[in-house]
Every structure is written in C-alpha cells, then in structure tokens.
Amino acid sequence: MAKTEKIISFGLYLLVFLLPWQTRWIIRAGEINGGYWEYGTISLYGTDVLLFLLLVLFSYFVLQNHKTQIIPPQRDPARAVAKPQNTNYPATAGPRQGGGKTQTKLIYFFIIGLNLISLISIFFAADKLVAAQAYVRLTLGMGLFFLVSNAGYDRIKLLYAFLSGAAFQATLGIWQFLTQSTFANKWLGLAAHPAAAGGSSVIETLAGLPAGQAGGRWLRAYGGLDHPNVLGGLLAVAILILLSLRGANATTQSKVKINVVGDFYWRSPRSLRSLAMTIIFYFLFFIFLSALFFTFSRGAWAGLIVGLVVYFGFWILDFRFGNAEARSGVGEALKIFLKLIAASAVFISILFFSYKDLVLTRLSQDTRLEIKSSAERMASYRDAAATIKGNLLAGVGIGNYTLALKNFYPGRPAWFYQPAHNVFLLVWAELGIIGLILFVVIFVYLIFFNLKLNKLKLIQNSKLKIKNSNDDTDVNDGYFNSTLLLVLFIIMLVDHYFWSLHFGVLFFWLLIGLAAKELREERADI
Predict the structure, then answer these.
(1) Would you say 55 and 269 are in contact if contact means Cβ atoms under 8 Å apart?
(2) Shortest CA distance to 78 belongs to which of 302, 348, 260, 235?
(3) What is the pTM of this model?
(4) pLDDT band (50, 70, 90) for residue 360
C-alpha cells in the first residue's frame, strides 16, 4: 500500500498546484433575463475530477488497511523525530496526549451537520439543479478537508506546490496589469477581461491614463481567477505561508541541523542550498507583493496587514517569554522579519508613487466607480438582511441567493444579481440559522483551539529547556494557523467567494484542513 500512499500524496500536490486554474466544461450556461448568469452555470472543473479520484483512492486505501477510525496523524519527514528523553513536560501536558484525535472528531460532527443542512436546503431551492451543483461543490470541499487533515503526505512539499501555483497566478496578474490586456484560453480556464468592456474589474480615474486608453479605465490584475479580489486573497495567504516557512527556518540557523530531502531547511546559511533558497524566497516574496498590489483588493490588503501584525506579535511574545534557547532562534526570525518590513516599505513606496492616482482613487469615494462599488456593497447587505428575514430558518437553498434577488428586483440585467459581500450573511440567507451556526462553530472551533495551542507553546517555551530536539517547526505552526484563520475571517467579512465560487470553496476547505491537521498533530505531541 506504500505505492497507493505515494500516488495519493503526489496527486494532492498536483491538485493544490492546479487549484487556481479554472479549466472547466460548461454543461449548462446560466441565464437570467436574457443575460449570462455565472452563479447558475452548471460546470465540471478539471480539479473536481482529480479531487474525486483522490477521494476514491483514499477511501480504498482506508478500507484496504481495515481502518475503522480516522487514520492517525503522521508527521511529515521534517518533523518525524523522536521526543527528547529528559524533557520535563508540564503537569498539564500529560492528560492531553492523544487529545488531538478526540478534538478533531468533534469538528467532523459539525461538518457532517453542515453537509446535511445543505442537502436539505436543496428542497427549498427555486432552482434545484443549481442547488445540487452547489451542494456537490461543498461536499467536494469537505472531502478535500478530510483528505488534507488525514492523509499521509509531506506538508512542506504541499506548501511548495501551493506556492508554485500561486507564483504562476502572480506572474500572470503582473503581466495583465502592466500590459493592460488579457487573453482567453479554454484549456487554461482563462477568460478575457477587456478594460473597456462593462463588467471588467477596473479602476476609473481622470489622471494617469494608460497610453492610448481613453476614460482612465485601468484593468486590475485577475491572474487566472474569477476576480481580482480572489487573486488578492490567494496572494495574501501565499505571502503568509512564505513567511512562515522562512521564519521556521530562521529558528534553526543558529543550530546544526540534518538536511532532510524535501525539507525547507539547510545545514549552513553559507551553503549553496541556503543561498539558492534565500534567492527564491525573496523572488517569490516580491512577486507576490507586486501582484497583490496590482489587484487593488482592499479586503486582501487589510487581511494581510492585520495578519502580519498579529503574526509578528506572536513571534515577539515568543521572544519575550521564551527561554534562552528559544529566544536565540526566534531572534533570528525577528531580524529577518524586520529586514523584510523595511524592504517591503521601500518597495511599496515605489509602487505607490508610481501609481499614486490609482491607489488614492481606490481608497477614496470620489470617483464614479468607487461610489458605485460602495453603494452596491451596502445594498447587498440590505438585500441579504431582507432575504434572511423572509427565510430565517430554512434559507433560500444553497447556491440560490442570486436567484432569490430576482424576486426583489425583477427585470434587471443578469450582472446585477450578485451574492452578498459577506460569507456569513450569505450562508445564513442560503442555509438558514442552523446552517449559519454550524458554519460559524467550525470556524470558531479551529480558532479557539489554535489559540489555546499557542498559549501552551508559550508556556512550554518559557519554562522548558528541551535538549537534543531536532523538531524544527513545532514552535510556531500554531501561530501561523491562528494568523491564517484571522486573515480568512477578515476577507469573509467583506467578500463572498469562499462560499459562492468554485475556487473559493475548495481553497477555504484546503486551508482549514491544513489548520486542523496541524492541530491534531500538535495536540498529540503536547
């Protein structure tokens, strides 16, 4: 069965790499009032097929191994080391051993409950075919959560695959903005977004017009995704992942470490491997930062800024309360972060002054499109409240919110019907109050236990002196998970794609699956 495990692992790496690409077969194009309706379009995505095959293969693997319970967490090669023999763990740690498995069993109960509520909501939907597709999409997302949180794979390689996929999207986004052009390709899942066309996401300003372009319509970076805000969310997460890998590595620089194949770490900062990885890190960091800037996604900007402040705060607490050994490694990470902050400030300043009019326009409410954008966002909140009021318990059916808007605004053009720009309101409107409670509980549950894990780690780092430990990443994984969940929460407050769009749904369950896997592993070790 080792071969099956390897196929699952490499299939998962491939899936994460391909996830941003929107290659699909449109089975039935959605239509409202004679116009194209994206949220009612029935499609089969290439990544859906790959994910389904992986889930079937993983289920077969579990059955063949006669597992009646969820597979115990397996630490990836970089973390598979023996615990130190002479470590005086705190008295509270003993009863918690193995607790990760019990804790994560409860979250599966909530996820199954959310799935059942979503299934039931199909019967309340006006368009049951659209609702069925949304339910299948959600179920696949939950399957990805189960796969990521339970399968045996190298977490570092998975993050490499994610960053590689994000790098392609960032590079494409930068090209789109600098050339102010896009192209369509059905095999890559790319749609054309001409700046002059209505419906394209642009910034409209009277100053700093692109050469040969009238009206001051600047195309924002899409990458291969549905909207610049979606690309912004992807890049905000990619930057956090990149920093977490770099920070974890920095904590080992003052120690001699074993070089593990596939690991992010290296023996000496003067080695060629170290130099190559450092160059790659800075290259990716500034590529991601540039592309994020060119998305002009205010939600992604805000989420990343708050996330970086919180993440940096966790490291400071670790340095402030850690023992001498812990502070040595954390100090190296803080030095790198401070250098990055300085370099990023200079880089962003250059971009800001190069595109000052665009940034100020995006942050102001003085131009036609920005006024329209804010008005539409506020109207979407009012429409969601009205929809919820009329369907408080059962909702309008999963995937059917935009169709329900037609009852309030009949005869409008198809592009008018958009989801509420708040995931929690959208879930409430589609699934009812029980669905909302289950969704919130899943999210808050992960945040709560990751914060609790952070507290335990801070206590350990301040009171313990662990000798002969080669575990390179245990110290700060919980910090990254908590920060990541906070960034997701901020974006979900101002956007809808984590619930309404194919990529957003799978992306959401992928990320919380990673957080849940780390929670199981860490709590099993504490």
Answers:
(1) no
(2) 260
(3) 0.85
(4) confident
